[in-house]
């Protein structure tokens, strides 16, 4: 704890926020300075590596084109038409095969005389090939080679040749020729930075094809100051005298005498201006962070004080209104405190109301229990019978109270009341048919109707339809209309059948009869009809719906 207190002494929230801002800003400043020391070297190394790789990628594209041309020559050299000396058929077949391409085939003898040229119809008089130097070099080396770029005699365009020497006569060599501008379609600066150019250079140092801002035409000599430095297979060239603020990457095309080059400006800011920007920006960052932390601390301090004042007034028992601050979370706390103060006030009011209701309902229950015991005492001939009768009635009353308590005395559905009271007679449950549209009863109606149902079921189990297996009881209720009574009425019917025959009406009215008749009629401000029919008891209660249904 002493170590914690040493690093975190007691201080205001503003002091801590300012310290935190400085602690965050200074390491960032130092880290950026360290990065700047390595930034320039890393940028240059990365740029050189990427430039060399881009030049190599372009060389591979050109190499594929030259290899495809060489493969085509090998296939054509072994064709049956050429072996049999049928140049006309060979011309027709070759022209058809290359019709959709930009390539043309020339067959020459050892003197360089063109025997056929797919640029012209077969039989058209043709002269010698325009590039005798390349032909002689190929005949001497005995391998396929690509020529330097030259002006074609037949096409009049800048072209290049790929030549395959043959030992057979009269065709001493097969040549595939292509216009330099068609090869230029493969030379692209896509993926390079703006301002960069790319070119293919032949063995003599002339441009075969190029693209980009340099705008070099085929046959143009490339800068002779640069070419002698391009000695290895690939690399970069940088010279502020020859290429100021620029970088050049090159790659030798494997197996051929050509090179690919790409070059362009180096987009790199001065490290001095970057340091100047870093120092000014770092100081500004620290100042802004400190000022921002102070402003935030002031706002947070005010917000905390407002929330604390709300909590104090809530503790004194007041209903507090939420304060409006600029901090969303603080507003949520303020709303929660306000709601809590209102809920507490409502809870206190509810508790007072519940206590009042508890006293009122307790008095009613005690009054009902006293009346029940007095009535049972008059009709009981022994203490044991009195105890059994009281226990039985109290059980029915307890069921109603438990049901109301589970619903917080807010009312219970009629069908649930019926089910709960008939659960006391599980052996007879299947003999009772219940029908009627369900609705919610008032708490008083739950108790009073529960008493009546309990008495009816108890009487039926002892003496009526439920006392024998074949007996049946139908308990139903429905709405009725009475022109003399405009209020909505409900009619409940308890009808027994199949029990022991009823020979005569009981001569003495007991407590049960009082409950199902006088008490029920009084509690629901209605009428009760009881008919002891030979086939079983019929009990009909017609009551005002308002005395039963909870609004």
TrEMBL record:
Domain Signal transduction histidine kinase HWE region: 357-438
TM regions (residue ranges): 16-39, 277-297
Key words of the record: ATP-binding, Kinase, Membrane, Nucleotide-binding, Phosphoprotein, Transferase, Transmembrane, Transmembrane helix
Coiled coil segments of this chain: none
EC number(s) from the headed UniProt entry: 2.7.13.3
Catalysis performed (reactions): ATP + protein L-histidine = ADP + protein N-phospho-L-histidine
GO molecular function, one term: kinase activity
SMART domains reported in the protein's UniProt record: HWE_HK
Name of the protein this chain belongs to: histidine kinase
Organism: Rhizobium indigoferae
């Amino acid at each position: 704890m002493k170590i914690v207190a040493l690093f975190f002494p007691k201080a205001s929230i503003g002091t801590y926020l300012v310290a935190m801002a400085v602690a965050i800003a200074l390491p960032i400043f130092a880290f950026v300075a360290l990065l700047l020391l390595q930034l320039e070297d890393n940028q240059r190394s990365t740029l050189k590596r990427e430039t060399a790789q881009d030049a190599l990628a372009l060389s591979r594209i050109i190499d594929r084109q030259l290899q495809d041309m060489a493969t085509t020559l090998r296939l054509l050299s072994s064709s049956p038409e050429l072996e049999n000396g049928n140049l006309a058929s060979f011309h027709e077949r070759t022209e058809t095969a290359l019709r959709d391409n930009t390539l043309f085939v020339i067959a020459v003898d050892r003197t360089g005389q063109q025997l056929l040229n797919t640029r012209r119809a077969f039989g058209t008089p043709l002269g010698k090939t325009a590039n005798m130097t390349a032909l002689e070099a190929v005949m001497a080396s005995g391998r396929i080679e690509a020529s330097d770029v030259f002006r074609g005699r037949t096409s009049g365009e800048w072209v290049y040749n790929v030549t395959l020497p043959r030992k057979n006569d009269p065709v001493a060599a097969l040549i595939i020729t292509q216009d330099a501008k068609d090869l230029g379609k493969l030379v692209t600066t896509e993926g390079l930075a703006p301002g960069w150019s790319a070119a293919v250079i032949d063995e003599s140092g002339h441009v075969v094809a190029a693209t980009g801002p340099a705008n070099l035409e085929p046959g143009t000599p490339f800068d002779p100051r640069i070419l002698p430095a391009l000695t290895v297979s690939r690399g970069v060239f940088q010279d502020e005298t020859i290429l100021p603020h620029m970088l050049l990457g090159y790659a030798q095309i494997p197996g051929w005498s050509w090179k690919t080059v790409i070059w362009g400006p180096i987009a790199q800011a001065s490290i001095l201006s970057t340091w100047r920007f870093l120092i000014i920006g770092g100081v500004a960052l620290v100042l802004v962070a400190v000022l921002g932390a102070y402003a935030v601390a002031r706002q947070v301090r005010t917000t905390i004080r407002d929330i604390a004042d709300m909590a104090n007034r809530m503790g004194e028992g007041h209903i507090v209104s939420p304060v409006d601050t600029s901090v969303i979370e603080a507003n949520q706390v303020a709303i929660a405190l306000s709601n809590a103060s209102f809920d507490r006030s409502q809870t206190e009011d509810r508790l007072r109301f519940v206590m009042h209701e508890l006293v009122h309902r307790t008095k009613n229950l005690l009054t009902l229990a006293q009346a029940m015991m007095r009535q049972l005492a008059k009709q009981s001939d022994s203490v044991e019978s009195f105890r059994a009768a009281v226990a039985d009635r109290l059980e029915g009353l307890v069921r109603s109270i438990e049901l109301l308590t589970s619903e917080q005395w807010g009312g219970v559905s009629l069908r649930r009341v019926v089910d709960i009271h008939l659960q006391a007679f599980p052996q007879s449950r299947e003999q009772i048919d219940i029908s009627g549209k369900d609705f919610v009863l008032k708490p008083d109606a739950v108790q009073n109707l529960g008493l009546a149902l309990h008495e009816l079921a108890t009487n039926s189990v002892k003496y009526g339809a439920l006392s024998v297996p074949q007996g049946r009881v139908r308990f139903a209720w429905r709405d009725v209309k009475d022109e003399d009574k405009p209020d909505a009425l409900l009619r409940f019917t308890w009808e027994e059948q199949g029990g022991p025959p009823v020979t005569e009406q009981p001569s003495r009215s007991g407590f049960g009869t009082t409950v199902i008749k006088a008490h029920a009629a009084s509690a629901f401000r209605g009428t009760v009809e009881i008919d002891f029919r030979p086939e079983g008891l019929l009990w009909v209660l017609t009551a005002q719906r308002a005395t039963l249904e909870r609004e």
